[in-house]
Design a protein that fits this description.
Layout (H helix, E strand, L loop, with lengths): L3 E7 L5 E2 L15 E7 L33 H7 L8 E6 L5 H12 L5 E5 L4 H11 L6 E5 L3 H11 L3 E5 L16 H18 L2 E7 L11 H5 L2 E6 L6 E9 L7 E7 L2 E4 L3 H5 L7 E2 L1 E8 L2 E13 L7 E4 L3 H14 L7 E7 L11 H12 L3 E2 L3 E3 L2 E2 L5 E2 L4 H10 L4 E5 H6 L8 E5 L2 H10 L4
Parallel strand pairs: 4-8, 4-9, 5-6, 5-7, 7-8, 14-19, 16-17, 19-22, 22-23
Antiparallel strand pairs: 1-2, 1-3, 9-10, 10-11, 11-12, 13-18, 14-15, 15-17, 20-21
Amino acid sequence: MAKNKTVFYCTECGAQTLRWSGQCMQCGAWNTLEERVVSSKTSRTVKATSDTRALRFSEVNADATRRWPIGDREWDRTLGGGIVPGSLILLGGDPGVGKSTLILQVAAVLAKSHSVLYASGEESASQVLLRAQRLGIPTDNCYLLSMTDLEQVLAEAKRLETDVLVIDSIQTMQMSDADGIVGSVSQVKECTQALLHFAKETGTAVIIIGHVTKEGNIAGPRLLEHMVDTVLYLEGEAGHPLRVLRAAKNRFGDTAESGVFSMQTDGLTAVSDLSRMLLADRSEAQIGTVVFAGLEGIRPLLAEVQALTDPTAFGYAKRTAVGYDQNRLTVLLAVLAKHAEVGVTEQDVYVNVAGGLRITEPAIDLAVALAIFSVLYNIPVSPQTAAIGEIGLTGDVRRVPQIEKRLQELSKMGFKTVFLPAANYAALKEKPDHLQLVPLKHLRELRQKILNNPDL
């Protein structure tokens, strides 16, 4: 016979404890513990059925997991070739970045050949239709449901036998047997668990939209990202049309891939030539601007690095970076002062990556250093000059990965001069004919070349 016991349940995160306290020890929330009586479950015997029989790998039906190409090359690139039936995809991003717009466009494309149900808990059906009409998205073949009760949403999805189910957003859904208010950790966890079970049981591909916290993480329990098959982030700076779709986790593809979109009046459109779009405004030599050949996922891109210095008016020099790591800028300036004898200790330094991009790879260091040299010595840099290389704490210029792919992109865009690590230069099997490669071992060499040859 089952015995009842009393526990204290946190309405915020779902944690249980045997004693009451003012603060939950799991999530830190105050006054969220409620006393509840639960019944301890008795042990049961697991009976084997035909569904539990193990299969050989050769007996598994591969056609059941054949991908559905979306038709958008950026989406298909990020997902690894398309959507896998029965997969659970989580898309996160800042408010207003374009998550709902992007998913609505994908739902409209998939509805041409599959049954799609778009369930919105944030907007009414008429509001979703108005947004689709404003963007010119054809939604005639897509089912629409405005509801926050997830159990009814799943029942309707079963009735329609949908191939794709879109949830916008997971924080607005609720289940009657789950504890906590709508959007709480316990509700988000239970709703995601129900969607995961539904996806695997029916073979329906489920796409979930999730909000992010101020730290940039998906709002809800960290367990949420472990439960889903794919975690995507849509990133973009306010005021810039560029949007980057990154895969933080992908069980069916490469997380190094990413998709690039541009926000237009008719929605998000795929960017075919990112480098050309980012460098469209460059036409003449300028002081403090250098082109960097980076990688967005596994594809090359060219970005413009801008630097500006100004004598500090206070006792402590200011360092500001946009699109470049702030801590890395501080370290780089210390290296310049120590090993390249560059006077930046009494200068306010500002660094910006144009176009709203955020570059995290260390290979951008040399371009930042060259831009700072340019503005300090008042020497303009040719629009056909680029720099690639990581800078160590000793001032040495270190090798970067996939240098051939970067140089190929620079050659395609008509660049003539490239500063690069000497180790990469020595490892090149073939030197590009149209590029003048300038190998560097140390920052001092870069400074010396700038002073001896102002015509960069």
